[in-house]
């Protein structure tokens, strides 16, 4: 198959594991048995690897039709490799170098070689490093095979997620045609986008009043907000950033670093469409993953499949929406950014300027970079447990290529920028608040190079007609939760 897998790796000392949760001011790690990192590495990741095995073995009849009997050898070698990886994880073995045809092999091996040896195993390493390594190893088994080097063992899950969401897509498509350019509409679209993962389920459970128009954006944002709490809301600052100098002919690019495919990407596209239709952006540059990643992350192949699915949809409105989006892409108002393996690397984003200067320079050409989802947030924070009241800009540790927005539902212990005392109050009220996905943040910080921050410039709180924009400070979350909840 043109690739080697060493079956030898050192086992680390199990006595290093600790019984408590990950302490503050440390990296997330599976070393702490009461952490979400430990739970993921001990239980969730082995289950995911077993699903990979079941998927590829279940596809054997179709693969034989497509590639011939020889493909069975590929499948067997991949299954054996995944089984060995499960064993390495279970025994907390040392990470192995990559020796195949991986395009990012040199970068990964350099990173692994620089890791301190005591931190180079699954449960001792930073959780971000261990988890990214696992997903990178899984795909390396496929990309080094003879026939299955482009096989996405997760694509069916992303496709099914979109196909079962027809009702939600139709409702949102009807509600978002010809929306006016306003802060109120933009803020609603941002919230729908934030909670996109839950929307289909919530739509089915929502109790509509008799006078509720199910095709009204105001009603649908109430659906999105069911049992969800926004802890920080910097939407006004984002709006002000996008509204700056909209009457000039200069390019206003928005970089959007995606999270999931499926229905969530549909809500992403609604947001992109709104921004370019209303000239909040002259172009949205969409960053997707170079390889199948974290089960549901969107790839270029997923984007192509989504466009085809919508264009060919039997529902006339969804087909029309798909055709419009295809036109926006062909006219380059929405573009897929050049492939970068940095997004599927283990590094936090504050090292981007050293690790991928070309990507960093690309981001400096945009008006705003929106980082979507929990994994992007963890990489912005370096998988470090800050005090929850620490300022967002501080936690970025100098990563400021442009104005930055983080759009994220909280699914692990890394969070910052909350009002003083709120994190502790939340913990007393809901012990699992950090991993429930029921709490979210919309956070923003200006870049140092942003002209709106310089003295003598136009007031960034005013639009091009001199009309006062939304007062940003009044939009900051003032949510307080008592110990009793």
TrEMBL record:
Alphabetized Pfam families for the sequence: ARMT1-like_dom (PF01937)
GO cellular component, as recorded: nucleus
SUPFAM superfamilies: AF1104-like
Keyword vocabulary terms for this entry: Hydrolase, Manganese, Metal-binding, Methyltransferase, Nickel, Transferase
Co-factor(s): Mn(2+); Ni(2+)
Superkingdom of source: Eukaryota
GO biological process, alphabetically ordered: DNA damage response; intracellular phosphate ion homeostasis; methylation
Domain comment (free text): Subfamily III proteins have a conserved RTxK motif about 40-50 residues from the C-terminus; the threonine may be replaced by serine or cysteine.
Family note: Belongs to the damage-control phosphatase family. Sugar phosphate phosphatase III subfamily.
Function: Metal-dependent phosphatase that shows phosphatase activity against several substrates, including fructose-1-phosphate and fructose-6-phosphate. Its preference for fructose-1-phosphate, a strong glycating agent that causes DNA damage rather than a canonical yeast metabolite, suggests a damage-control function in hexose phosphate metabolism. Has also been shown to have O-methyltransferase activity that methylates glutamate residues of target proteins to form gamma-glutamyl methyl ester residues. Possibly methylates PCNA, suggesting it is involved in the DNA damage response.
The protein's name in its UniProt record: Sugar phosphate phosphatase
Organism field: Drosophila suzukii
Organism classification: Eukaryota, Metazoa, Ecdysozoa, Arthropoda, Hexapoda
Gene: LOC108009060
